[in-house]
Queue: 2 jobs
Job 1
Amino acid sequence: MEQIIQTLILGLALGGVFALMGSGLSLVFGVMRIVNLAHPSLIIAGAYATYWAFKLWGIDPLVMLPVAAIILAAIGVLLYKLVFEREARSAKYSEMTVLLTFATAMIVEGALGGMFTNTQRVTSPSYATDAIFIGNIFIPTGQLYAGIVSLLIISALALFLKYSRFGNAIRATTQNREAAELLGVNVNLVCIMSFAIGIGLAGAAGSLVSFVFSFFPAKHWEWVAVLMSLVVLGGMGSILGTVIASFMLCVVAAFVGAYVGATWSTMTFFLALFLILLIRPQGLFGEKPELA
Amino acid sequence: MPELLDVSSLTAGYGDGPAILDGAHLTVQPGKVHCIIGPNGAGKSTLLKAICGMLKIRKGDVKFKGESLKGLRPDQILRKGICFVPQERALFPKMTVRENLRMGGYSLADKSGLERAIDEIEERFPILRERRDQHAGTMSGGQQQTLAMARTLIVKPDIVMLDEPSLGLAPKIVQEMFDIMKVMASEGITILLVEQNALMGLKNADWGVVLDLGRTLFEGPAAEVMADPRIQELYLGGKKAA
Ligand SMILES: Nc1ncnc2c1ncn2[C@@H]1O[C@H](COP(=O)(O)OP(=O)(O)O)[C@@H](O)[C@H]1O
Ligand SMILES: [Mg+2]
């Protein structure tokens, strides 16, 4: 029994972090129908910013988080303006954007490798290696903090999307771009801002990831498939779906890791992605593909 | 008195594609219901899209209150007082009815009266109040069309353009939609309606416009259009007299 609870807690803690990692990807897909393969590489960029801020100046990762988010959001605006904006009216939009995000991922990886080498890094504030004990059950403090901060950020995002005027414009554009335009929404501005928020979320996730996992420039390839499985299971573009999918899959992966074998844990995500695409391609909360 | 809206020898099309409209014209009298009829593919939807700014005006002109709308974006034309409800109704399926109504006021510079205006609309259309917290996509076709039409009222438009509001609705519901439209017209809102069912559209209209192959063939009082033997032959099934 204890081991079951223990496994559940570890799964949930990671679920929060992956939910944050996936939510920016989901937002960008929802608004622009861009499958941003560069998203995980930008999370790694955020992780490096956090790592060096801690290493050089002793800045706590949680303090660095908003800074990383803003830096990455600015990079997001630049990226959108330089790379994606001109594709907006292209007839081969989906093909082009997939290629462009793939190229972006390679460039980000190359740049990070060039600057920081391929050494494995992990930010090590004191809480990263601590644990809280409740009886015989332990909760790694770092994962707990990361999970809680992730959920706070996602809640803030959800409230912004639900209740602010601009958040409503973003949701409206996601659901019916032409209608939003007809009602006076500046759809191009919505695209730029959503891209900035999405990449900003990658930066924030990077800060948390930097002390939860060890990372190196090419690590993002591992996460592409993991995040895709979350976003697809949740229903492409549904942030709530991504969050629920993330908790589900991380808990399942934790149990697979504990009872089947650690090497099978990551396989959970790939297998899930495969099965979802076969059985329910619209995901848990997505529209049927033909209606999308 | 000048026409409220004056479309003259209009040429327009999609992107760099061929001209779909070529020589469309139309005059719109304030407070009247105008019905555009014509066969499938005639360019009726395209005409409404060109008027509301979704398509570029290549040649000719669209004048609203004597002022050209050439080169204006849809949101600018909306702010001038022309509202467009496209065939697909332009709703946000996963936003609530109330949120959909609020989006209707997105272009308003002054938001202070927005919630009041929405309350008033809910009062007029009780079904929308009943369903206020329900996702728009879960409502019936008639309710969705009601929402789309009611939503235009928020910006107090001069002209409302409706593209086939009857599409996919049961006959009884269709009559409800036409009744809403007529009430809107009685309040001084000018209606520009595209209708696939020509006879039904003209019966509910004051003015008829016949469009074919991107050109206006004929326009005049709805009763005259209905009575015209050529129009009857081509579009009204040939025998039913008005
Ligand atoms: N989005 C589009 N892109 C290119 N051509 C279009 C588009 N929509 C309609 N058309 C073409 O424009 C013509 C007129 O269409 P439309 O205005 O929808 O006709 P109607 O509403 O009278 O049935 C058709 O030949 C159609 O193929
Ligand atoms: Mg049409």
Note: The interface with chain A takes residues 52, 54, 74-75, 78-79, 84, 86, 88, 90-95, 99, 102-104, 106-107 of chain B (CB under 8 Å).
Job 2
Amino acid sequence: MIQVKELKKNFGDLEVLKGINTTFERGKTNLIIGQSGSGKTVFMKCLVGLLEPDQGGVHYDNLNFTRMKGLERNIIRQKMGMLFQGSALFDSLNVEENVMFPLEMFNKDMSRKEKLERAHFCLDRVNILDANHLFPAEISGGMKKRVAIARAIANSPDYLFCDEPNSGLDPTTAIVIDQLISEITKEFQMTTVINTHDMNSVMEIGDHVVFLYKGNLCWEGSSEEILTTGNKQVEDFVYASELMRKLK
Amino acid sequence: MILFIKLFRESAMFAWTSIAANKLRTLLTLLGITIGIFAIISVFSVVDTLERQIRGSIASLGENVIYIQKWPWEFSADFAWWRYMNRPTPRISELDDVMRRTQVVEAAAFIASTSRTIEYLNRSMERIPVLSVSHDYDKVRNFEIERGRYFSPTESTAGRNVAILGYEVAQNLFQQTDPLGKNIKAFGRNIEVIGVFSKEGDDTFGNSHDESIVVPVTFISSFIDVNSDRYNPAILAKGKEYYSSEEVIDELRGAMRAIRRIKPTVDDNFALNQSSLLSKQFDGVFAVLKLAGWIIGGFSILVGGFGIANIMFVSVKERTSIIGIQKALGAKNYFILLQFLAEAVILSLLGGAIGLLMVFGVSWLATYAMDIDFMLTTKNILMGINISVIIGLVAGFIPAWTASRLNPVDAIRSNG
Ligand SMILES: Nc1ncnc2c1ncn2[C@@H]1O[C@H](COP(=O)(O)OP(=O)(O)OP(=O)(O)O)[C@@H](O)[C@H]1O
Ligand SMILES: [Mg+2]
């Protein structure tokens, strides 16, 4: 469980986050949506500690992460898996070595064989074990995404952060990847936070949806509720696409 | 430790990929290191080769042998040659006096040299050095006789017309036939060949017996004034074992001054030359050569070092996001640092290795095409490798440090 309390972040005069309060539950996929420039990226960076909030803080299972110093933070950071935009695999390492990378970095007391087994387990979970000796250049975008997911969960994280996980994927593959993230979230009981533009994702896997508007948390709720909310800003966002308007 | 090696392997792999991706640019930049290593190591190899030859030559001259001569071997800058002009030459008659007046001299020999045309039947060789030596020559100079024998005491005292031929002389005049017992012609006389020296090879100081002949001085002195300055007479004195050359020189100086009745206030009128001193003179030359190698090579290496630093900065910039992702996935600063240092060292080693290969090629050419025994020693190879590694570390440190200090926020270009 991740609790966000009165989170504020400014860049000079620009107030990007104006005091966000919310809670992301374990075993649920939490989606952050909002218009471009609403502060989604900044919010996620504050969550994982890549940016320091000006006020307020982030609590990981009741531990105040924002207040922690380097060493303590590292303990929490070891429990975070991150899925970067555009997969961000290491081109010079093959699929299985990519997945082993976080294990090499964090798990000093795991034997090489155990690391390999763990990597294979993760690759098997995302159905891509047979590609373990291929290099990133030799696999498709969807496969890369799977490898990136396997790498993100290699360290058995408690928290999973996904930065636009299905950008650059065709709609079908995007749904498959979304489903995969949702499944492993339930299976490994992780607290998953996803940054997205994609309304399909919201409808498919949005257990808990946070809508940011001009630096404020404007609305939150489940994917069912989002269609029927009376909130003007949310409706403008949700029905921005032709398709959704037709559905309505 | 095992983890470190694994990490290092991965660092090297990252490094290799980036090198392979920019082959031409990389090679051009490495030219500085290549030329630098080539300059330094080739100069060192040349110096080592020369040194080895000179050491060998000095050993053949005989250790601890002092040459009593008119002219000194070492000329200082303010050398007043006219003061030496009027000195007397060492005389054959002084040889016995030297032996009588010294305790630490084991053996001494008189030697005078000239050159003549040597004939055998219809074959002849011009300007062959003829060394006229007194009997104990074999005790002061190291040599081997391949065929025949050295002069007998009677031959030496009676001044018999006998000669020992240098290897090349024997080869040229006699070819397949056995020279022993045959008569060669020189000075308008017949001289009987009683021995042939073993092949000695080239000698830095031209002291090889290969292209000369040796005869008893008593034979030559019957028709030539061997004490004349023209024949460059010298008395060679070999010190006894366990006496330093300084002791031998001291005693010889005293003996010679007594023989020539030189008053205490008057300067020596003879020179005491020493083969090991000769090498000291060369040491100076070698030091200058090596310094020149360092300076030329040093500048190239400096340029090469900046080149590597440049490549590394570009490399860090190109891989900023990778560094960020590595960090986000748990990579520590030192891992990033090592990764880029490894890359810099690999680059530098690559440049150095090409330079060493070039030295190797040149030494091969010199050995096989020009018949110079030019050697690339393990010591010099190791030195080349060490220099390369150090340059890589130095040139790569600042870029690697910058990379390791990158803030993951700037490093990850995400826009989720
Ligand atoms: N490092 C920074 N320095 C200054 N301003 C920043 C910085 N990072 C973000 N901002 C500003 O904060 C605001 C929110 O940016 P953010 O990237 O969070 O938007 P976003 O919701 O992720 O948009 P998009 O959907 O287009 O990715 C923007 O106005 C941006 O210019
Ligand atoms: Mg963004």
Note: The two ends of chain B are 38 Å apart (CA to CA).
